[in-house]
Amino acid sequence: MSVSNNKAPTSIFDSQDSNELKERQRLEELKRQAKVQQVKLDKRLNKQKILMGAFLGQVLATDGESEQMIREYFAIHFPNFLTRKSDKELFKSMIESLGGDIRLDNEAPFVGNDKVIERVVSSEVVNSRQQDSLLDENSYSTYKNN
What we know:
Layout: H1 12-61, H2 65-81, H3 85-97, H4 114-135, H5 137-145
Helix pairs in contact: 2-3, 2-4, 4-5
């Protein structure tokens, strides 16, 4: 009696197919891992944005000289950051409560509150002068005494 082998004969093509399958599986696993890492990164970035927004919201709600400058800056520049009409509508009442003006697509171009713009511009000039004086070591002591 002869012993028969039930296995199909293997050829070089069978081993190539097997290698290609393993490579495809490995590639799919790497793609899956990359997607998982991207989701984790997206969640982290979203959390950072939420926390920064919460902080800014708290600053805007706080009374104080420093906070007032931030509120004025926000009221002037944030409307230009918003590009969608729905986003502008969402922040319209907030911007107006801070003394700014938000332009919706069917309204006139953005015109800032002159009083707010004047305060921000004058504070930027003062800050610029303070920075210039701090650059000069001799004037630092004079600035500190004033």
